[in-house]
Structure formats: structure tokens, C-alpha cells
Amino acid sequence: MSHTISNYSQLIDMDKLPQHIAIIMDGNGRWAKKRFMPRTFGHRAGMSSLKQVVETCSELGISCLTVFAFSTENWKRPHDEISYLMSLLVEYINKELKELHQNGIHIKVLGDYRNLPPASVQAIDKAVQKTAANQGMVLNIAINYGARDEIIKAVQQIATQVKQGQLEPEDINEYHFKRFLYTAGLPDPDLLIRTAGEMRISNFLLWQIAYAELWFSPVMWPEFNREELLKAIWEFQQRDRRFGGLNVDGQGDSYA
Ligand code: FPP
């Protein structure tokens, strides 16, 4: 039934917005292939979708948006495609940074980006530094990011603290652990969106999405727009989130 509803902006409850939305932007390649165009054409179109989604989230007052731009596994792609994605990141920052900054957006990076091409590292550093004091929406760009890698890095840091006698193993708990993740200090995603019909998590934010609502859209990322985002938010607002407890009617389920 929900698919027949249009103009979701009138249906959204502005008092029940997700605080943090995470997005796996999938389907650029398939979208391009269907148009007999190279995959890079799809990535470029995907950049426009990203712009629209960032603007919409910021306008709505979402406090945090995390997008999966490049995974630790994406290095397996052809060299030319990797180079194109890296240059697209630089282009995105060069084109959008001024406006993002004017809108108070605080750019952060999830992932170990230091080994990216120098131009990408410079662009990221510029964006992160320029927007560091901004108080608006946090835009996390996950780049060279993998959740297992993130968790291992956290474990290594905690093990070092234990080894140096700064921490007792029994003092390690969830609250301590998450301070070592790239998302330290940020709320966990309430809503995880994946486009292009795949129903996988693909090593994205494994720790952080423990209680996230999942929304899998059939729409290819280059066609994902403001209305599709609003639809995802509306679907999120129809869910009954219990976090392992009971809802207002005293109903629970096995796990959460
Ligand atoms: C997945 O589509 C998309 C990516 C791996 C990259 C995401 C990049 C963008 C949205 C463009 C903007 C980028 C930056 C860096 C600002 P896919 O290639 O896996 O699509 P497929 O599954 O159809 O092949």
C-alpha cells in the first residue's frame, strides 16, 4: 500500500525523525549498464543523488548522515574505476564544500583514508578542517571503510591500553568500546537504507546498526532522490521500535 502514496513530505512526522541515517549507495554500475554507458557514468550520476540526499537530510534537521562511498573491499575493482571514484570524491569536495560549510555541515571521514591518492587525502583534510567547528548535520563519508577493520582497530587500541596497565579487562564494556570506533561520540544509526535491491549489509557499520531499522529500496542509487528518501523515513516512522523491551501496548518479541 505504501507504494501508492506520493508526496511523502506531507506525511512525515517531523517530531519522529531518525537522528542518524546511514546509506549504502548501491546500483550505480547497473544503472549505467542499462543505458549502455560505462560504470563511471553511473558513479557520476550517483554524485548528484548524494548532493540531493545531503541537502534534504540537512534541511529536515537530521543530525547525522553516513554514506558508504568506498569500502575496504572496493580495491578489488578495476584500477580505472577506483581512480575515477577517487577523482569524483575530490570533485565532490571542490564543488560542494562552500555550500556544505555555509549550511553548517560538519564533514567527518570513517575509514583509514591516509593511503588514498594524495589529491584525495588533501581534499578530505581540507573538508574536515574547514567544517570542524560547524554545528549542523554531521556528514560521515565512509571511505576505505570496513566494519570488521574498524572493530579490529578498536580491539588493538584497547589491548594496548590493557598491556600498558591503563585498563583492566573487566572494565571493557559497550560504552568504553564504542569510543574507539570511527563514530565515537555520534548516535547509532536509527535507519539504514540500501538501494538497488540487494539485501546485504556488506561490512558496513556492523557494531553501530545493532538496533537500526533496515530499509531496502529497489531504486538504483542514481535515481534515489528526495522523494525516495522521504519514503524511507516514512516507512521508518511506521515501525515499532522496542530495543529489546516492550512497546506501549506491552508487546515484545523474541529479541528486539
Ligand atoms: C555502488 O555502486 C557505489 C559505489 C561503490 C560508490 C558510491 C559512489 C557514489 C555514490 C558517487 C559519489 C562518490 C563520491 C566518492 C562522492 P556499484 O558500482 O556497486 O553498482 P552495481 O552494484 O550496480 O555495480
Structural commentary:
The longest helix has 24 residues. This protein has one domain: Undecaprenyl pyrophosphate synthetase, CATH 3.40.1180.10. By secondary structure, it is α/β, with parallel strands linked by helices. The mean pLDDT is 94. The protein has seven helices and six strands. Helix 1 packs across helix 2, helix 2 packs parallel to helix 3 and helix 3 packs parallel to helix 4. Bound molecules: farnesyl diphosphate.
Low-confidence blocks of residues: none
Number of spatially distinct domains? 1
- Strands of the widest sheet, in order across it, are 3-4-2-1-5-6
Give the number of DSSP strands.
6
What ions, cofactors and ligands are bound?
A: farnesyl diphosphate
CATH topology: Undecaprenyl pyrophosphate synthetase
User: What would you say the CATH architecture is?
Assistant: 3-Layer(aba) Sandwich
What is the alpha-carbon Rg in Å?
Answer: 19 Å
Number of helical regions: 7
CATH superfamily: Decaprenyl diphosphate synthase-like
Globally, the shape reads: globular
- The helix/strand class is alpha/beta
Instruction: Quickly name the level 1 CATH class.
Output: Alpha Beta
Beta strand % = 5-15%
- The averaged pLDDT comes out at 94
What's the N-to-C terminus distance?
A: 25 Å
In N-to-C order, the SSE pattern is EHHEHEHEHHEEH
Helix content: 25-40%
Q: Largest beta sheet, briefly?
A: 6 strands, parallel
